[in-house]
């Protein structure tokens, strides 16, 4: 059983991506493990594609592409509903 929520931020290093990285890092709970992944790396881009990422920035929480990222754009309310900022029970 996982003890930490896994948050992956797929980024290309652009200002919009950096804004989302900051939002995630500020909203993450103490037991959230945040990974910022560079889409310019082939292995990262392949993982992103497998998860359904179509644009960056994109956020994956516990292996699932957040709903806000599936249709482009980031919505903090949707991310929080998906578990961002809350430790696992």
Automatic annotation (TrEMBL):
SUPFAM superfamilies: Thioredoxin-like (SSF52833). Residues 6-65 form the Thioredoxin-like fold domain. Pfam families: Thioredoxin_3. This is Thioredoxin family protein. InterPro entries: Thioredoxin-like_fold (IPR012336), Thioredoxin-like_sf (IPR036249). It comes from Pseudomonas benzenivorans.
């Amino acid at each position: 059983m996982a003890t930490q929520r896994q948050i992956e931020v797929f980024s290309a290093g652009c200002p919009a991506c950096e804004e989302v990285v900051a939002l995630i890092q500020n909203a993450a709970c103490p037991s959230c493990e945040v990974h910022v992944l560079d889409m310019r790396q082939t292995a990262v881009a392949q993982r992103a594609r497998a998860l359904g990422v179509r644009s960056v920035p994109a956020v994956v929480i516990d292996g699932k592409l957040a709903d806000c990222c599936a249709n482009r754009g980031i919505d903090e309310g949707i991310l929080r509903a998906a578990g961002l900022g809350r430790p696992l029970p």
